[in-house]
Specification:
The protein has about 600 residues and is mainly beta. The chain has two helices and 40 strands. It is elongated.
């Protein structure tokens, strides 16, 4: 009995031992290929990661493992570790300079001069290379930086003889070309340079109403301690006479008064800053009397004190004299208005807004300001206005710019052209209003423009340019001849002349550098100003006045179906009837005053 029990016990022990042994994990034989060799490993590790750790294989951040690190280990599995490394190298690359040829009408036909030596530039290129087990498998350029800017070689050549036919012109035309002031009288064949230093900055370029003097600014050095520029005066009648400085520096805008009997200049000032765009406007307004020689002229007098009114005041406002010399229109990023001048014992100025609008958000360092044009009778202003958005974009991002007419009394406004474009730059002449019409109106900042003409009431729109298959102008710069029959414009850097009937344009210049055209009569008629006094106006008569900004009249929101107009800011009296409204120029229809939309109201 005892032997039987011992035998049974031993048998049970053998069975238990068998089951225990069968349930225990058996070592797996796996193979690891890494760093160019293969090794075997008997391991009880559950995953590939654990097996590599047991084998002492250290993984770098970019290494690749196949199968994946979390794959369950199986007998006979081959684990492959690929060593991945990355390097970044820089190399230099030469950028060849360009060769440019510029036609300079100051040179004799066929004459050439090397104006600037060409210098190669240099790029620094960074390249990332990827290696797997020491073999390059990928090469990618990650950055390209210009270390040295290339300097173009500039060859200046004289115009070819008889390259342009002679075109007669009325009066005096001045224009800017390659940093110099140019002039032509009687015909385009008489064009000549007034300056030769090439340092005009284009901020100020104004021809006196009698065509005898040109006002302009020259850029100073880029040193932050110095002013932005300097105001100069050049004679257009005496060949070889040297320009003279007026001793005024840091000028943003300046323009001659159109009243011939009073040689007065209005200008605003600016301070240089290290931050973009490089200046801070003062938004002031000064008057300088040049009735006597500049050496004997009284000091300028400030008419408008420096201020920070409106949005984007650092960019500054632009100003434009009315044809009668009694008012100035102003435009800034969010408003158009007039500055009324009145002479009593002293000269006083009153600023009256005509329209408020949401400023354009450009997402850049520049600010859009409308271009202005006065009617010949000094009663109306034409200007593009930033309109409300067409879709879900914000009002500041709207790309709608419509052309409007405004009565300077603040009682009448009319939208005459929808989606004309931000650079419409109207030019109001005796025979109609010329303006630029964007070919891509919702991308008008970069679009090319056709040149259109409308009657004074906005009707009878017709195209003056392109005449056939041209591409349109890049930036409308439009100037009417003194008699209003011809229109001067810039196309691809040259001056062209067309008639208001739409005749084929005639080219006046050759060098593809022309801009800022100005045109006055040779023997101008004396203007009749609304500002009158028994004695000539001098700076001693001018005292600084309080600038009054009339509060806007809030008009109820327009009812559905009524086309909204920009916010007009008339006086609180009731709007006049059509019989009381100021008359538009001959042949025009008086537009109807419409309700003011909320988006144009002054807050």
């Amino acid at each position: 009995m005892a032997r039987r029990e011992v035998t049974g016990f031993l048998a049970g022990l053998l069975v238990a031992t068998f089951f225990i042994t069968a349930c225990q994990t058996q070592p797996s034989q796996v193979f690891i290929e890494v760093d160019g060799r293969r090794q075997s490993l008997a391991t009880e590790a559950p995953t590939v990661r654990a097996a590599l750790t047991e084998a002492g294989v250290i993984l770098e951040p970019f290494d690749k493992v196949k199968p994946d690190l979390y794959t369950k280990l199986e007998p006979g599995m081959i684990i492959v570790v690929t060593r991945v490394t990355e390097t970044v190298e820089t190399e230099r690359q030469i950028v060849p300079f360009e060769r440019q040829t510029i036609v300079n009408e100051a040179l004799a036909p066929g004459e050439t001069r090397l104006a600037q030596l060409g210098v190669n530039g240099e790029l620094e290129i960074s390249i990332r290379s990827v290696y797997e087990d020491g073999v390059e498998v990928n090469r990618t350029e990650i950055s390209r930086v210009t270390v040295i800017e290339p300097v173009p070689e500039i060859l200046v050549v004289g115009p070819q003889p008889d390259e342009l036919p002679s075109t007669p012109i009325e009066g005096t035309i001045a224009y800017l070309s390659n940093g110099n002031a140019w002039l032509m009288r009687d015909s385009n064949g008489s064009r000549r340079a007034l300056t030769t230093e090439g340092d005009l900055d284009g901020r100020v370029f104004s021809l006196s109403p009698d065509g005898r003097q040109l006002l302009y600014t020259t850029k100073l050095t880029a040193e932050i301690e110095l002013p932005l520029n300097e105001l100069w005066l050049a004679s257009t009648t005496i060949v070889g006479e040297q320009p003279i400085t007026l001793g005024i520096q840091g000028v943003l805008h300046a323009e001659w008064s159109p009243v011939i009997t009073r040689a007065i200049i209005a200008y605003s000032t600016v301070e240089r800053t290290p931050q973009p765009p490089g200046w801070q406007a003062n938004n002031d307004l000064w008057l300088l009397d040049l009735s006597v020689t500049p050496e004997d002229a009284p000091p300028p007098t400030r008419l408008v004190e420096p201020n920070t009114q409106g949005l984007y005041p650092w960019w500054g406002a632009s100003f434009s004299w009315s044809p009668d010399g009694g008012q100035l229109a102003y435009a800034r990023a969010d408003q158009i208005g007039v500055i009324n001048l009145a002479v009593g014992q002293t000269l006083t100025a009153t600023m009256t807004p005509l329209v408020d609008f949401v400023p354009l958000k450009t997402f850049s360092e520049w600010v859009w300001v409308p271009g202005l044009s006065w009617s010949p009778d000094s009663k109306f202003i034409a200007a593009p206005v930033h309109g409300p958005p067409l879709a879900a974009e914000s009002a500041e991002e709207s790309q709608v710019f419509d052309l409007w007419l405004f009565d300077v009394s603040g009682t009448i406004s009319a939208r005459v052209v929808d989606q004309a474009g931000m650079w419409a730059n109207p030019a109001w002449g005796p025979g109609g209003i010329a303006f630029g019409k964007a070919i891509n109106p919702l991308q008008s900042a970069t679009s090319r423009y056709t040149i259109q003409l409308i009657d004074h009431d906005g009707s009878n729109q017709r195209q003056l340019f392109p005449f056939t298959a041209e591409t349109g102008v890049q930036l409308p710069e439009l100037v009417w001849s003194p008699n209003g029959e011809s229109l001067l414009f810039v196309f691809n850097g040259n001056l062209y002349l067309t008639s208001r009937q739409g005749s084929p344009p005639r080219q006046l210049t050759l060098n593809s550098q022309a801009s800022h055209p100005r045109w006055v009569a040779r023997a101008p008629v004396l203007s009749t100003a609304t500002v009158t006094t028994t004695t000539p106006l001098t700076a001693s008569d001018i005292t600084t006045s309080t600038v009054v900004s009339s509060p806007p009249v809030v008009i109820s929101t327009p009812s559905p179906g009524v086309t909204p107009t920009p916010g007009v800011t008339p006086t609180p009296e009731a709007a006049p009837t059509s019989g009381d409204a100021p008359a538009l120029p001959t042949g025009a229809v008086t537009p109807t005053l419409e309700p003011e939309p909320e988006e144009f109201r002054e807050p």
